[in-house]
Write a structure and sequence with these properties.
mainly beta, globular
Length: 214
């Protein structure tokens, strides 16, 4: 994934991350380290005078293995972290702290981002979403305001509740909303500015077989 910015991103733009550890889905399918997780921008709302909060909605739905085989997947963004080695300090945004989930280690691939996958007990086995007959679209619990950031660590809820909660991330002024039963992997927000993800940004994904999406 190259640098992604809600200011100039377009719906349908490709977003590709490379796995930094081996992942085994609930049905036993192995996604080796170094595989590509392929996604796209599902929705974008840049910051403007009419819309102070920006939004980037992402969907990762394919895994491309080293042999070229493509495997459909269902994914949920669990955390977003700055490029490895880039330390975010507490400043006016008022939050920071350690990673929400494992990043998988290793250095990000040149020209892209790294992706980890987390499962039960912090392992690399990704569990499937709970069975459901519905697949609701991701909705948010209300606007994010700059004043809601003060003193919060990554992963703290700033708006909404339950599966539609909006949480802080390890990147200042970038917030995450993700729902395992939603129609997209997750939505990123920024208050009074555009969502900006630098090259090498790490995205932690919960991965499940696409067959378990319904």
């Amino acid at each position: 994934m190259h640098k992604l910015d809600s200011k100039n991103a377009k719906v349908g733009d490709s977003v590709v991350v490379k796995t930094q550890e081996k992942v085994t889905t609930a049905d036993g399918k192995e996604i080796p380290k170094g595989s590509k997780l392929i996604g796209h921008v599902a929705k974008v709302q840049p910051h403007s005078k009419k819309s102070q909060n920006s939004e980037l909605m992402l969907q990762f739905d394919q895994a491309q293995l080293k042999d070229g085989q493509t495997v459909p997947i269902r994914s949920t963004i669990a955390a977003v972290q700055p490029p490895e080695g880039e330390v975010q300090s507490n400043g006016t945004d008022g939050f920071g702290g350690g990673p929400v989930g494992p990043s998988g280690g290793g250095s990000p691939a040149a020209g892209g981002a790294s992706a980890g996958a987390r499962g039960p007990s912090g392992g690399t086995i990704a569990s499937a979403p709970s069975p459901t007959t519905a697949n609701p679209a991701l909705t948010t619990g209300g606007p994010v305001t700059a004043s809601s950031q003060g003193g919060l660590k990554a992963g703290q809820v700033v708006a909404g509740s339950g599966p539609n909660a909006i949480r802080t991330t390890d990147i200042p002024n970038v917030y995450l909303a993700s729902n395992a039963q939603g129609s997209v992997s997750g939505a990123l927000f920024s208050a009074k500015s555009d969502v900006r993800l630098d090259e090498g940004t790490r995205i932690v994904l919960d991965i499940a077989p696409a067959a378990n999406a319904h």
